[in-house]
Amino acid sequence: MKQLITLLLLLIAGMAQAQIDTTLLQINKTDSTQQGLNMDAVYDRPFLNLGKLPVSVGGYMEANWQYMGTEGITEGHEFQMRRMTLFVSSTIGKKLKFMSEIEFEEGGNHIAIEFASLDVEFHPLFNLRGGIIMNPIGAFNQNHDGPKWEFTDRPISATQMLPSTWSNAGFGLFGKTYKGDWMLGYEAYLSGGFDHTIIDNDQNRTYLPASKANFARFEESASGTPLTTGKVAVRHNNFGELGLSYMGGIYNTFEDDGAAVDEKRRLQVFAIDYNHTLPKWNTFITGEWAWINVDIPNNYTQFYGNKQQGGFVDVVQPLISKKMLGWEKASLNLACRLEYVDWNVGTFQETGYTIGDHLWSVMPAISFRPSQQTVFRLNYRIQQQVDVHNNPAEKTAGISLGLSTYF
Predict the structure, then answer these.
(1) What's the predicted TM-score (pTM) here?
(2) Distance between CA 342 and CA 403 in Å, rounded?
């Protein structure tokens, strides 16, 4: 029986390989830099289609080497396989589309379903999405694929203030419309959300990314109430895209078996994002800024801030775009990222002195793209971070070299 099963598998594999060899293999060569809204990022990816099968697959990977030091102390040479991400999609039927994104990090020790939803199309302005959705707060959370960026690291504000690739089980509506040079889109979702770990964690600060470790959020909400996320984005071909987004809800468990155990505590996040390509020089500018408000219990130390803010701006300038080293549409780019995060906006109640706990960073970069779907990048980080007491800044500097590609 085992020999028969093995033979059948070999025959099926041979037939599949024959089909691939007879031009049934097609690749959707989507240009990852084409004009569109950030909400389109889930569709704006290259996929591979095998014959007439209804399933398409794709993905991307990121790897890098870095040498960083803080106040003269370094971990030495670090070789990192940051992540490998797989996309699986399917057009199930007319107006029914399934999309998924599965990420492998830390050599496969951490595996997460970041996106897995069914889109039901009723009208361009009215569509239903349900499953594991990517909450559209800011721009980076949805449009985070490594090959689209000139930097080995994700923005600090999007990973250490906002929870990067923040997704939850939920449902909602989205839509988009066009008229002349204008494009308008919206998204609105109800989903699971945060929990008390945002103010009870090993960071000793208000830290929204702590809730990513709570996988129970895909089955139940810590507060028993939904997290609300909404975004409106508008693009003009001559002026770029502007997005406004909101995310908020109750984060703590305030009832247990119908009995009140705490008062309701809310968090709210407001974000603005913008991106545009200057036509004369092809200079690409993108960035976002977010404000966070969290209801902190009165008995908590002021190390836990009730207000946070931060963001980043990327500027990418193509230097050479032509055939290079055998690649037809290669490009050499110069880039720079400016970042700032303040985890505790305000003053100490006892003294009136400004609370510290903030950081700024400048990261110049050079990148080479043999195609729009593959990037080699060299970055240098200059960073200063101030503790909560505003002691002299801790200085960090270092270099990183990496690559990222769709496949």
Answers:
(1) 0.89
(2) 30
Tell me the C-alpha distance between 365 and 348, whole Å.
38
Residue type, position 247, single letter: M
CB of 197 closer than 8 Å to CB of 210: yes
Q: Do the Cβ atoms of 381 and 392 come closer than 8 Å?
A: no
d(CA 352, CA 61): 48
| Torsion (CA) 201, 204, 205, 211 in degrees, nearest 10 | -10
Nearest to 175, CA basis, from 127, 137, 105:
127
Give, rounded to a whole angstrom, the gap between the first and last alpha carbons of the chain: 37
Check if the beta carbon of residue 122 is closer than 8 Å to that of residue 271: no
Nearest alpha carbon to residue 201 among 192, 209, 210: 210
Pairing of strands 327-342, 358-371: antiparallel
Question: Cα separation of 59 and 211, whole Å?
Answer: 26
Average pLDDT per block of 10 residues along the chain, 407 residues long: 36 35 35 67 85 87 97 95 95 94 88 95 97 96 96 97 95 96 97 96 96 92 95 96 98 89 95 95 97 96 96 98 95 98 95 96 98 97 97 97 97
Q: What's the angle, vertex CA 128, arms to CA 123 and CA 132, rounded to 5?
A: 150
Q: How far lies 108's CA from each of 83, 112, 146, 261, in Å?
A: 8, 10, 17, 39
Other C-beta atoms lying within 10 Å of the C-beta of residue 12: 10
Residue 131, CB half-sphere, CA atoms under 13 Å: how many?
16
Q: What distance separates the 2 farthest-apart alpha carbons in the chain?
A: 80
Class of domain 26-406 as given by CATH: mainly beta
Element (H, E) at 147: none
